[in-house]
Design a protein that fits this description.
The structure is a single chain. By secondary structure, the protein is α/β, with parallel strands linked by helices. The protein folds into 2 domains: 2-126, 3-Layer(aba) Sandwich (Rossmann fold); 143-211, Winged helix-like DNA-binding domain superfamily/Winged helix DNA-binding domain (Arc Repressor Mutant, subunit A), CATH 1.10.10.10. It has helices at 11-21, 36-45, 62-72, 87-96, 108-119, 127-140, 157-167, 172-179, 183-197, 202-211, and strands at 2-7, 27-33, 50-54, 77-82, 100-103, 124-125. A 6-stranded parallel beta sheet has the order 2-1-3-4-5-6, with helices on both faces. β1, α1 (11-21) and β2 (27-33) form a beta-alpha-beta unit. It is globular. The chain starts with a strand and ends in a 7-residue tail after the last helix. The relative contact order is 0.11. GO terms for molecular function: DNA binding. It holds the Pfam family GerE. Keywords: DNA-binding, Phosphoprotein, Transcription, Transcription regulation. This is Transcriptional regulatory protein LiaR.
């Protein structure tokens, strides 16, 4: 059973997300919080597997809570709940190393899938957020060419193929199905690809893919 902590200062939002998650037989919401301080305390007290944190809450927000949970309960996988227009917060959270990001208006299926994937140790960023961050980066960045672009040439054909799918927002499981390979194999390809590109996460790799012209919608 996947034990989940849900933190959001809006009671109706928490109730709606909890209702969705309770339809999954392998997920249980074991704790709820209305602010970051409470979320930090409950994450350790209830030995949760996944913490779903609203990125903005009064007092101690989700970002601060994520940092504290990482320090005090490092085994907990944190997923940030966000909305469009909060990309600057998402960028900060990416640097903090959270496990995933999900839009609040995601479908019930996407929410359940995200909790399951993150609980297995697979980072997840919704395709919408990936596109949002990439769009913000490409429209605002006026600096020199990213030196990581030269590293794309070091990728194998398979790693480049995986990079394109990651940039499109596909999970390891989805990539595996498309390439007819096991998730473990895909996870290894993703890890090597990120290392070769010197990228800390999938969003950074997606930006490199867009900058390198690997995607048709660039």
């Amino acid at each position: 059973m996947i034990r989940v902590l849900l933190a959001d200062n809006q009671d109706l939002v928490r109730a709606g997300i909890k209702l969705v998650l309770e339809h999954a037989e392998d997920i249980e919401v074991v704790a709820e919080a209305s602010d970051g301080h409470e979320a930090t305390r409950l994450a350790a007290a209830h030995q949760v597997d996944v913490a779903l944190l609203d990125i903005q809450m009064p007092g101690s927000d989700g970002l601060l809570a994520a940092e504290r949970i990482s320090e005090r309960a490092p085994s907990v996988r944190v997923v940030m709940l966000t909305t469009f227009g909060e990309d600057e917060y998402v960028a900060r959270a990416l640097r903090a190393g959270v496990a995933g990001f999900l839009l609040k208006d995601s479908t019930p299926q996407e929410l359940i899938r995200a909790v399951r994937l993150v609980s297995r140790g697979e980072p997840i960023v919704s395709p919408q957020i990936t596109r949002q961050l990439i769009g913000r980066f490409l429209s605002h960045d006026k600096g020199p060419t990213d030196p990581r672009l030269d590293r794309v040439a070091t990728l194998t054909d398979r790693e480049r193929e995986v990079l394109v799918m990651v940039a499109a927002g596909a999970s390891n499981a989805e990539i595996g199905r498309q390439l007819h390979l096991g998730e473990g194999t895909i996870k290894a390809h993703v890890s090597r690809m990120l290392t070769k590109l010197d990228c800390a996460n999938r969003v950074q790799a997606a930006i490199v893919a867009h900058e390198a012209g690997l995607l048709p919608d660039r």
